[in-house]
Amino acid sequence: MDVHVVSKLDNNQHATFTLPEALAPTKLAASSVRVKTQLISLTSNNLSYAALGDALKWWNAYPVSPSYPAPYNDPLKWGIVPAWGFASIEESTIPELTPGTLLHGFWPTSSASTDLKLQASEPSGHWVEISEHRRPVMGLYNQYTVKKTSLPISATSDSQKFTSHQDELDRLGWLAHFQAIWKAGYFLTRYVFPSQEDQRPIYPLGDVAGVKWTKEDADLSSAVVVSLSASGKTARSFAYFFERRSKETAPLGFLQVTSAVEGLSQATQTAEPVFPSKTVGYGDISDAELIQWMKDLSPTKIVILDFGARDGALKQLLETVKTKASLEASKIVIVQIGNQQKARSKSDMLTAMQEMKSLAKIQYNTAGIIDSLVTSQGTEALHTELASALGRFMSERHLSMPDLNLVWKDGVNGGDGIEGGWDLLCNGKVGANEAYLYRVQRT
Predict the structure, then answer these.
(1) Which Pfam families match (predicted)?
(2) Which residues contact 339 (CB under 8 A, 6 or more apart)?
């Protein structure tokens, strides 16, 4: 049983160790399930879970155990970075959840078994983790849902068996990557900048007491919307829904800045948005053609959605807008959604906080939006809406993400396991057209 841990002091430092098989498993508590992680994805989001793990309590989800070998048993210095995907139930004291059931949710990067204490939620098949140590964790990350499949997804050397089930594996793989993170893109275009005229706009952090987000704040009719790091997984989900807006809620124009120009341009052509759209590489932010395109639109507002742009890209864009495009009178709104694909040091975090303040950035948070929507429309209605929207998004993934490929890896330790995947993320080596998946259990 292998466990991957990351240093809380320096996220570049990480390790994998092997635990002995338990000779006498502890008795499973009431209202609990014992599970093993089966299939997870690794994205730039995982780097954020590490960098902000103390502040936003992501480390609390799966704390290191005192029984782990030293030094990895020290919770002040080491932690497990969770990842989205699927786990299978091995043992259960909940009648509705039988062994073999597959759950989608937030899982440890480990092949060892772990226990969850679950409470039924709405609609049927939805569950909430209610363990004491999980209370500080935001609600989104405590939600688990039953996923129906007859396919065993453990890593296997039987290539013929793998190929025969490839379609189902791919379906689960895409869901492991997008079922959680697509919501950010959807909520941004549906509720933060509403795609329906009668929709009340919601502040990017949710309905925060004392903070207003008016229809004027959310109005894009005189704005150019810019997506920075547009090839990221969250940004791709945003573009899918945003490019299908009606004329009534359309912006003046939509600019995507990316390292994957060809793939995103192809997706935009397929969507046929009712507003002007342009896709450029990072090296073209100050290009004369782009400057003229922005000038011709004559925006009074520039809305920048930063999904995790490369170092210096935001600064260069602001210089282009204010100086070269002569749009210094335009109102600048910057919404921070993601972070660059690299491990961040304490000094990096301090610099980011200073930039948030100096540029008056607005932080986005999916969990806050969900809490607001649950309050206003109820859990079941929200899940029904999300299931419908996710179905549309996933059924057209070949159109909205034509260049994105699943990259299958196996296990926890080594270069082909989660250990190697963490190195790729820390060094920014996951390509814009790659979606990494890890089948954790080996057979």
Answers:
(1) DUF2855
(2) 44, 47, 48, 51, 308, 352
